[in-house]
Amino acid sequence: LKDLPDRWGDAQYGIRTFSTQGDVASVHRVAMAVTVGCYCGAAIVGPWISGLSPWVFVPGELGCAALSVWTWRRTDPRDKASAAVGYRWVWRAYYLHHAVVAAAAVVFAI
């Protein structure tokens, strides 16, 4: 995902990345599917992690997955501005994930 907004610069300087070598829409689709799958997988496995409240962790991770799907649906990876905005939203979901883990740990400790 990191290379999508800058694929034009990478291509200009001959830098080989997945997004310059393959179809950018396919690269985006696979990367977002993996991202959503990781958040869903964390929601499934999370209840077995000692030290995290499943009542906070599971809905939080599913929220990260939903935010990622929302980002996926509204991002056009062929458009530089849209790809950049989509990439920022992927990072927001990632930061939300960290907040969810911290909150789940605090609630568990209470």
Task: For the structure shown, list the relevant keywords.
about 110 residues; mainly alpha; elongated
Spatial extent as radius of gyration: 16 Å
SSE run: HHHHH
Give the overall form.
elongated
Which spans have pLDDT < 50 for at least 5 consecutive residues?
none
Strand content: under 5%
What is the chains' assembly state?
A: single chain
Q: What structural class do you assign from the helix and strand content?
A: mainly alpha
Spatial gap, N to C terminus: 37 Å
Helix content: over 70%
Instruction: Give a short account of the largest sheet.
Output: none
| Average pLDDT | 91
How many strands in all? Answer: 0
Helix segment tally: 5
Task: Report what the structure shows.
- With 110 residues, the protein is mostly helical.
- Helix content is 75%, strand content 0%.
- α4 (54-74) runs antiparallel to α5 (80-109).
- The protein starts with 6 loop residues before the first helix and ends with a helix.
List the helices and strands and how they pair.
Elements lengths: L6 H6 L5 H4 L2 H22 L8 H21 L5 H30 L1
Helix pairs in contact: 3-4, 4-5
Brief overview:
This protein has 110 residues and is mainly α. The protein has helices spanning 7-12, 18-21, 24-45, 54-74, 80-109.
